[in-house]
Design goal:
The complex is a heterodimer. Chain A is an alpha/beta fold. Chain A contains 6 helices and 5 strands. Chain A has a 5-stranded parallel sheet with strand order 2-1-3-4-5. In chain A, helix 1 links the parallel strand 1 and strand 2 (31-35). In chain A, helix 2 packs parallel to helix 3. Chain B is of the alpha+beta class. Chain B is built from 22 helices and 27 strands. Classes of the chains: A alpha/beta, B alpha+beta.
């Protein structure tokens, strides 16, 4: 298993956006796992080593980003994983505060900011493997 | 409530005169004699000191004797039987009484009975010689007088007839109808006179000319007569009523001696004989018929009775005629009011409604200008003071405790600044709508320079002699003209009442409006919220495909990928993905444009004669295969051939696309059924999923704009699909229904007429 420090779990319901984002992040040398909603993300976390970062869309069916974060925070096994929210809408400062997100990225995404965020929380992957092979 | 200015004259008023007890003067006029008797034995206990002159018996010969002693036993017995022992003498007065005199024979008197202070009072006046047909003649005159009074059309005409008739019946030189003003000053409003006398018509007299207790007496008895103002009063002997120990109340006496001040007043006017008949309206003293004669003038009792009767008829006529006029006026007012209220409810702005018809608004109060100050804004019509002046006036009205309805025909007298705008508003009628907000409706009347012609200088009704204020009635009755400044015409009761009624109506409209406004406000808030939601959803929805596009472009433009070395299938996949985002964006923008078109009624249909619904639906399913692939839902379609109608193919495509994509979105990956069938008239499209379903409440909501049954924005989409779908179906003349069970699935059925929408 690859070192957890290189893993990013991407939680996004829009298939096209999710695959595009995963592809870009992979080109930067990170390993990307994908989930389509909060419930899937919890399931993934339950059965995998901790990733270095969670990138979570806020508006998703089944279990949205805010509810996901609430459940994450009360689960000591995963509560400390750095989590950055992605949103196309506005997110209120006190919401970010309450849910202790490490950052918020607005859509359309600011690519340099995304890269900085990743570098801040994850050690870059060494020899790049195609993320597709890791999933 | 309302203040009424009146022409003011000097402060000095005959307050001494007001205190003088004129109805118990203890004396009578000497043209008749008075006997007061104790019933039932009719012992004479009080007499007027002049009895000797008329009855040939002095007081000492009468007092403590009986009536029988005076008349003789025989006459007295007949008299008792016929007249006495009754409660009222109205029906028998005057009674012919023959009193035996010295030297035989008898003298005939007109006797008038009444009771006062527990005594039976008999007043005797020598009976004038009467022609044998005098009763018939009299009845004729009374009848024709009544007929004339009946025929009179207006109050003015009525009073003129009364003056003429009273003069012809009584023979007085001058007969005037004198009307009391609100301040009890009087005005001559009708007159009949000897041609050589100067007219008094139009003259005003100060209130002090007829003081308060005189007016009270006038309201009690109908008629007073002074045949000769130069008389020497005959005192009663003894002065006190022996039964009560008090002065005999002569309030109902026909011979009562009048106040010396009044006598002097008449003398100063050059009057030698006078009579006055009370005119009452609704039980209150309204005016007088005042009769003057330049020489002493006697009137037999029956003539006085007729005058009294005329006074009563006239009083009754006055009430009914005034009432009729007021009723007519009130009816007109109501009509104006109704029109105003109607206008207020039709117009969006209450003020606009109120002022919609300048004529109606001003007509209501008979004003020349008007203003409405409402909600901090001032609107005016007609001739009005300047805006700062009106605002100042409103401020004053709001703070000076003038009440809900205020009327003054002398505004500058109460509110000094009004002198500056006397030409527009010497008179003010106003209603308060709300005091905190200073809301008022105002009506204005200009200054009327009124000339009041006084009978003498009204500012000098008294003279001071020595240290005491000595009552000396005016000596000069030469006409004295006073110009009344800063006054408008008087606001009539009907006008004030109309304003008051309008106030109630306006307040009712305001209350109704407040409720309505609250509702509109809530609706507006809801609309704003919906619009904000919509913009927020729209921007959210646009940003997702934009994000994807942006990321793809970033990679293609050197952000980590080398396009030159990229395998062609990966490049192709990326471009296809990008194209899909563009398509999604296009669809979103189309939907937004549709909303705009539908809302502005510009959703155009391109109707074609042979559109095949089956073909349209098959194309939609084909196009959505990728989406189907992603959700993994199986599609079962049963599409009948030849379901052909007059439709707009593109709009049908939109309807089918919306329904099928909804089924994918909420169908939970379970099988989806699509049916197309038809009968002779209708085509039917059914799209059914087995997904999350809808509650009954949600089923009712989903066709509305921005409504999504699923909470929050966790499901992508504008929430416009079903609304647009229903709009299109409706435009095509069809309908859409939903049938759903929570957690079991949803079926949408679209019914479309084959012949298309009815034009």
């Amino acid at each position: 298993m690859t070192a957890p420090g290189r893993w990013v779990l991407l939680v996004e319901d829009d298939a096209d956006l999710r695959s595009s984002l995963a592809e870009l992040i992979a080109t930067w040398g990170y390993f990307v796992a994908e989930a389509t909603n909060g419930l899937e993300a919890l399931a993934w976390l339950d059965s995998h080593p901790q990733p270095a970062l969670l990138l979570v869309d806020l508006a998703m069916p089944v279990l949205n980003g805010l509810r996901f974060r609430e459940r994450q925070l009360v689960d000591p096994r995963i509560a400390s994983i750095p989590t950055v929210a992605m949103t196309a809408g506005r997110i209120l400062a006190d919401q970010v505060e309450a849910l202790r997100f490490q950052g918020v990225l607005s859509k359309p995404l600011d690519v340099p900011l995304l890269l900085t965020t990743l570098q801040q929380h994850c050690a870059p992957a060494g020899d790049a493997l195609h993320p597709g092979e890791l999933r | 409530m309302s203040e009424r200015g009146a022409p003011r004259f000097g402060e000095a008023d005959l307050t001494n005169c007001d205190r003088e007890p004129i109805h118990v003067p203890g004396s009578i006029q000497p043209h008749g004699a008075l006997l007061a008797m104790r019933e039932p034995e009719l012992t004479i206990v009080q007499v007027s000191e002049n009895v000797g002159a008329l009855l040939d018996r002095g007081p000492e010969e009468l007092l403590f004797h009986t009536f029988d002693d005076l008349l003789g036993r025989e006459r007295a017995a007949a008299f008792r039987e016929k007249y006495l022992g009754r409660d009222s003498f109205v029906d028998v007065n005057p009674v012919a009484i023959e009193v035996p005199v010295d030297g035989g024979g008898a003298r005939t008197f007109d006797g008038v009975f009444h009771r006062s202070g527990g005594l039976l009072v008999l007043e005797l006046e020598p009976a004038p010689p009467r022609a044998s047909d005098y009763i018939e003649t009299f009845v004729q005159r009374v009848r024709s007088s009544l007929r004339e009074l009946e025929r009179a059309g207006s109050v003015a005409e009525l009073l003129q007839v009364a003056a003429l008739r009273t003069r012809s019946i009584t023979g007085f030189d001058r007969v005037m109808v004198y009307r009391f003003g609100r301040d009890w000053h009087g005005e001559v409003i009708a007159e009949a006179r000897r041609d050589d006398l100067e007219p008094f018509l139009g003259l005003h007299y100060p209130a002090s000319d007829i003081p308060r207790q005189a007016r009270e007496l006038y309201a009690r008895s109908w008629l007073r007569l002074i045949p000769d103002v130069a008389y020497a009063p005959a005192r009663l002997v003894p002065v006190e009523n022996p039964v009560t120990g008090a002065t005999l109340d002569l309030g109902f006496s026909v011979l009562r001696s009048v106040s010396p001040i009044h006598v002097e007043y008449l003398r100063n006017m050059g009057v030698a004989a006078s009579m006055s008949i009370s005119l009452l309206k609704d039980g209150a003293l309204w005016g007088l018929i005042a009769c003057h004669h330049t020489t002493p003038h006697r009137l037999p009792y029956e003539v006085r009775a007729v005058c009294e009767f005329l006074g009563q008829v006239l009083s009754w006529q006055l009430s009914t005629k005034t009432e009729a006029t007021e009723t007519r006026r009130r009816l007109e007012t109501r009509q104006i009011q109704a029109a105003l209220i109607e206008a207020m409810s039709v117009h969006t702005s209450l003020v606009e409604g109120l002022l919609a018809s300048e004529e109606a608004f001003l007509g209501l109060a008979g004003a020349t200008g008007g203003a409405v100050y409402y909600d901090g804004a001032l609107r005016t019509v007609g001739s009005v003071p300047t805006e700062p002046e009106i605002l100042g006036l409103v401020e004053w009205l709001s703070t000076s405790g003038t009440g809900d309805v205020f009327a003054s025909d002398f505004l500058p007298g109460l509110y000094r600044p009004a002198e500056a705008f006397k030409d527009e508003a010497s008179g003010l009628l106003s209603i308060a709508l709300s005091r905190q907000h200073r809301d008022h409706v105002l009506w204005f009347r200009p200054e009327i320079l009124r000339t009041v012609t006084w009978g003498g200088d009204p500012s000098k009704p008294v003279e001071v002699e020595g240290s005491e204020l000595r009552l000396t009635p005016r000596k000069s009755f030469a006409a004295w003209k006073e110009i009344v400044r800063l006054h408008s015409t008087v606001w009539e009761d009907a006008e004030i009442d109309a304003a008051r009624d309008l106030r109630s109506a306006v307040l009712a409209v305001i209350v109704r409006r407040a409720v309505e406004l609250k509702r509109l406000n809530a609706e507006l808030k809801e609309a704003v919220r919906a619009r904000d939601d919509f913009l927020s959803i729209a921007s959210h929805e646009l940003k997702t495909p934009l994000s994807t596009l942006q990321l793809q472009f970033h990679m293609l433009l050197g952000g980590g990928l080398d396009v030159a070395t990229l395998p062609p299938d990966r490049l192709r996949a990326k471009l296809e993905l990008s194209e899909r985002q563009v398509k999604r964006l296009t669809e979103l923008v189309d939907a937004l444009l549709d909303v705009t078109r539908i809302r502005s009624g510009k959703l155009d249909l391109r109707l074609e004669d042979a559109v095949d619904l089956g073909t349209v639906v098959r194309q939609v399913l084909e196009r959505m295969r990728p989406e189907q692939g992603r959700t993994g839902a199986r599609i079962e379609s049963r599409i009948a051939e030849g379901v052909i109608g007059r439709w707009d193919a593109q709009r049908l495509d939109q309807v089918a696309t919306n329904l099928v994509s909804n089924a994918f979105k909420y169908g939970a990956g379970k099988p989806i059924t699509v049916l197309v069938t038809s009968d002779a008239v209708w085509a039917r499209l059914v799209v059914r999923d087995e997904g999350i379903g809808l509650t009954p409440a949600d089923q009712a909501r989903i066709f509305h704009r921005f409504e999504r049954a699923v909470a929050e924005r966790d499901y992508a989409g504008l929430g416009l699909g079903l609304w647009i779908t229903r709009q299109i179906v409706t435009r095509l003349g069809g309908e859409i229904v939903v049938d759903s069970t929570l957690n079991q699935g949803t079926a949408f059925t679209v019914l479309l007429p084959l012949k298309g929408p009815t034009p």
